Amino acid sequence: MVFGTLFLIFLYLILKYIIAWITYYNKLDTRLGDSTWRFTYDYPVIGERDISDLDDKNFVRLRRKKNKIILIMYSVIFIFFISSMSLLSKFLLFFFN
């Protein structure tokens, strides 16, 4: 149970670090939106649609970086959930046995 708790604390610190990166990316361009939980292609983009790097290279690359870090964030949350359920089951087995 000690290693599970340490692992959850470690995942929490990684999650806070990832959220800090997402807020940093949000402040770089206003077209990315302010949400931490949504991918950037969910937002309407003012002006021409940026399908490839040819339209607006800086914005498209920034959007792709933000989408990757959001995907990593969701992966960490999924691992966090699985680990917390494992720790909870070990905790309950310890007290009910």
Largest sheet: none
The general outline is elongated
Strand content: under 5%
Oligomer: single chain
Secondary structure category: mainly alpha
Q: Ends: how far apart?
A: 15 Å
The rounded Rg comes to: 18 Å
Mean pLDDT: 85
**Total count of domains:** 1
Count of runs of 4 or more consecutive helical residues:
2
Number of E-type strands: 0
| Helical content class | 55-70%
Low-confidence segments, given as residue ranges, are: none
Element-level helix/strand string: HH
Could you please describe the fold and organization of this structure?
It is a single chain. With 97 residues, this protein is mainly alpha-helical. The protein has one domain (2-96). Helix content is 69%, strand content 0%. It contains two helices and no strands. Helix 1 (2-28) packs antiparallel against helix 2. The radius of gyration is 18 Å and the shape is elongated. The two termini are 15 Å apart. The model has no long low-confidence stretch (mean pLDDT 85).
